[in-house]
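Design a sequence for this backbone.
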């Protein structure tokens, strides 16, 4: 005996329709259709699975799709996060840090992070790499500190 269950929902601009049909005692077919008001189909799919696996597979799909949605919807707070640092960026960062300023270290780091579209943590770490003391605006690292922190490009200690 065939039985069918339908459910519809509208999320944003998309109308979704899900149908579950059992065509025998053994298997179930899930049909999903997503369309815009214009009728354009933007989601379409079919799954065939054992009837007894329906609830378990439903939970599995819910977990996977929920996790995927959370990952995709997480906004990138810093447009240049994970982008490589170039010599020009290092030079700009070093020049900005060594320019005399009355601004304290945390505030200047936040300002540079905003301007360079990177996190304050990334700016602070990079300052040491370019030979600048991240605790004191306008100050280079000492030779000893530069060696310990692996400073290189543009520092007065030379490239390593």
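Sequence:
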């Amino acid at each position: 005996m065939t039985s069918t269950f339908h459910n519809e929902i509208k999320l944003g601009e998309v109308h979704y329709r899900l149908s579950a049909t059992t065509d025998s005692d053994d298997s179930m077919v899930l049909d999903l259709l997503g369309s815009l008001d214009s009728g354009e189909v933007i989601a379409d799919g079919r799954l065939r699975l054992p009837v007894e696996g329906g609830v378990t597979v439903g939970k599995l799909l819910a977990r996977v799709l929920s996790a995927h949605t959370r990952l995709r919807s997480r906004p990138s707070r810093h447009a240049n996060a994970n982008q490589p640092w170039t010599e020009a960026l290092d030079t700009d960062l070093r020049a900005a840090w060594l320019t005399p300023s009355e601004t304290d270290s945390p505030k200047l780091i936040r300002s540079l992070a905003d301007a360079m579209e990177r996190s304050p943590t990334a700016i602070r770490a990079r300052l040491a790499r370019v030979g600048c003391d991240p605790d004191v605006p306008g100050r280079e690292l000492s030779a000893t500190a530069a060696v310990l922190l692996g400073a290189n490009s543009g520092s007065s200690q030379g490239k390593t």
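The first strand starts at residue 3 and ends at 11.
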